[in-house]
User: What shape does this take?
Amino acid sequence: MKWLRDETEAIKASEVKSPKEKVGKNEVVIGTLEDPDLRKLFTLRGLLAERAEAQMKEQLHQAIDGFGQKKEHDSSTCPGCAIRRTLEQMGVRHETINSMCWAGVRAELSDAATIQLSDAGGTIGIREDWQIVICEPEKAAPPSIIEVLSSHGFGFGFPG
Assistant: This one.
């Protein structure tokens, strides 16, 4: 868990900002995320996605530049395999942080909000000013890094 501690400690207070998305007309505010550590964790989710995108672009360019230069496949030097390894590592870290974040948000809810959330189907999101909302499923948490990258053609189908 050293990586998680290092990542969260590296986040400056000025980088911790609430989402900009406003509460939707079909959403119900059930609380406010007050815990500064959870706010940092929520911020880290977005920072990891940004880093992943930048790193994947760089590695993709390297893969394209090196395409067809070597006849024998060597997974230790193959740019496609490097992309796959990066995706796997970032995916696991993002999913871990995502799970911890939403578990922490749920733990912060009052008993009444937990009951209200359970009765509504249990989908939550974070909106402007750190408001915790019951929301429509498609507006809940942002997609995982694996879902985002896979939707752009990055997947686990590289040689390996």
